Amino acid sequence: MEKIILSIALILLVTFAIPTLGSVKVSYPSQVLYGQNLTVSFSVYSTTINSTNFPIISSGTEIINDTYRGGSPYGYYVVFPMLNLSEEIRVTFLGEYNESILSDPGIALYGGNFEIPLPDSDQNQFTVVVLTFDGRILLHINSSWYAPLTSLPFYGQVIDNWINVTTPVNYTVIFQDHEGKTLVKMMFINGKGYFIGYLTPIPWNFSYVGIRLDTQYDFIKPIEFYASDGDFPLSVPYVIYVNGKEYTSGFTNSMGQGSFSIKVTSPLTINITFPTFHEYKVINVGVTTPMSNDEVKIVYPIQQISFLVISAILIVLGYVLEERRKRRST
Q1: 8 Å CB contact between 75 and 214
Q2: What percentage of the chain exceeds 90 in pLDDT?
Q3: Domains of the chain
């Protein structure tokens, strides 16, 4: 009997206590009148990126067998959007590259009035901090470029002004907020750390993180890309159920946003489901009339809570019965 109880509890916990991989924010009006359209908006984001499916690619970028090539004259990129930053962001690139030392590809943070998908050569009102793959810090602010550090460590050998890395290399950079300015704190190459500690004049206010590809002479092949400690929008599938029936489905956009509208003629139970990371929100909709004051409310799914509580009770019960059995045997 004890084994059966423990097995049931384990199945329930595995099935219903799956950790979420993202967070969801939902917005909607507090009340809705009979016959009106109810519009529900939602956004999905994660505190980490672990993907090479860059949602934003500069116009004109060439893609050849998972390798990105910049364009003419310069300033091409692949990036992820960011909604918010913490006090520190860690960015990792694992991959290969073939670049000219006369150009500046590398790990980049873009901010200011950066206009996607224009190459950065076609705009001026933006900020960027780049740690290049050939050991430089490159900055853009107030419509000007400059490189305050040009002799940082880098991986590979320079042969005829080229660096060709055909064995995957791991670059990690730690950027930090220092009184509102951007500090390039440390870098790691294949796990070996190097302190930098350079405080830039660039405000700690960025909208995109990724790889600056730069020119048509640069070939960058990301195998893995990772960033942490921000709010990164997710483009994920969603399914909307109304009173138990599928109403609509789709994908959130590159900024992690989605929405839908429905005409309210009776009370509704709306379930917004995100199947790829096992997250869902349930909204109960009452209809406001001159004689009532029902509200639109979001509720945590009762079924999930119930199963978790039952699982905990069964585990405790199984433990108690097992202890009793041991005492009897002694």
Answers
A1: yes
A2: 69
A3: 2-45+235-329 (2.60.40.1930), 56-233 (2.60.120.200)
